[in-house]
Structure formats: structure tokens, C-alpha cells
Amino acid sequence: WRQLHRHERSMRSHGTPLPVVINFPWGAQEFWGTEQQYIWYRGAGGPDEIECALFSLEEWCFSELQRGTPVDNLIKRIVDGNQCVAVLGIAVLLALHTNRVSDTVFPLVTSQALWWMDHQRMAQEMGGGMLNLAGFTKKSDLPHAQAIKALNERPARKQQLRWFAQLYVLNGTFVE
User: Fold this and answer.
1) Quick check: 26 and 107 in contact, CB under 8 A?
2) Concatenated DSSP letters for 11-60?
3) Burial class (CB in 10 A: 0-12, 13-18, 19+), 124
4) Fewer CB near the last or first residue (10 Å), C or N of the chain?
């Protein structure tokens, strides 16, 4: 993504890309991409291979939650060392799913850039329907379509990150 901005003239006309910087308890991290790359974890507009990997990562995270792995540990495991904003989408989804108020989730909740990207994700999902189900036309595609449909039906999909901020206010939880 950063290489495109350096080498492709049409991308350079959009200005210089800036990272989203998130200050996690384990240190500050830079993540690259816009709302377009953020929704790759939703199977929208990204390279097929990356979308597939992100779907698999999301499913693995939810299976780990069912095994009792703490959400803070999962978030750290998937974002630490990563640089793509798409993985932040999965981290946000995990936080919304668990309603976790913690030092690990707080930097996600307080990022204006993530609020914007997640708002755009919600608008696309509500306005465009299930775009990530497009292309499943053969009978042999049915198991894949059903798996994606199950991901789409998670209750956290109908929430936005900015709504989550109120849990911090109501709990009187402010992290410095």
C-alpha cells in the first residue's frame, strides 16, 4: 500500500500517506492504510489472499475467545508487530464483542482515525448489504458463503467503535 503511494501517480495525487499511531500499553505502533484498507477484514475491496487470511484470523480469534483466552491477550497477539489497519478492525471487533474495558482496548476507543474508519465500515455494511458474499454463484460455493454469512451475523457487526466509548465514561474508567 505504501509502495503504491510512492510509485503510482494516481495515488500520489491523494497526498502523503500518514500512519495511524496507537499507543498500546506495550508501546506505540504505526498502522498504515485508510478506511479502504480497514475494511479488508470484512472481505471488501482488498486482495483475495489478504481478505481470506483476515477472515481466518478473525475466526481463529473467536475460537480462542471460546477457549477462554483473554481478549487483551488476543488483541496484543494480533496487532503487536503488525502494520496494516485491517488488523485493527479485528481488534475493534473483539473489543465490541466482549465489551472489554481495559488498558489494551482504551487506545482503540480513543483513536479518532479508527472512529472514522469504523464509521465508514458500518455505513458500508448497512448501505451495501453483504458485499463480501458477492461472487458465490456455484453450488460448491455454498459452504464458503455460509461461513461468511455466519461472520456477518455476529452482533458486534451492528455496533460502532465510537459507541463503545460510553462504557469508559459510565464505568468511570480513564486510562492515562
Assistant:
1) no
2) HHTT-----EEEEETTEEEEEB--HHHHGGGGTSSS-HHHHHHHHHHHHH
3) middle
4) C
Tally of residues, the chain = 176
pLDDT by residue for the chain (176 residues), tens digit each? Answer: 555 555 555 555 566 678 999 999 999 999 999 888 988 888 777 888 898 899 889 889 999 999 999 999 999 999 999 999 999 999 999 998 898 889 999 999 999 999 899 888 887 776 555 555 555 566 666 666 666 666 666 666 677 777 777 777 776 655 44
| Integer-rounded Cα radius of gyration of the chain | 17
- Under the phi-then-psi rule, with left for phi > 0, alpha for psi from -120 to 50, and beta for the rest, what region is 75? alpha
State the pTM of this model: 0.77
Q: Which three cell numbers stand for residue 5?
A: 503511494
Q: Whole-angstrom Cα distance, residue 99 to residue 93?
A: 10
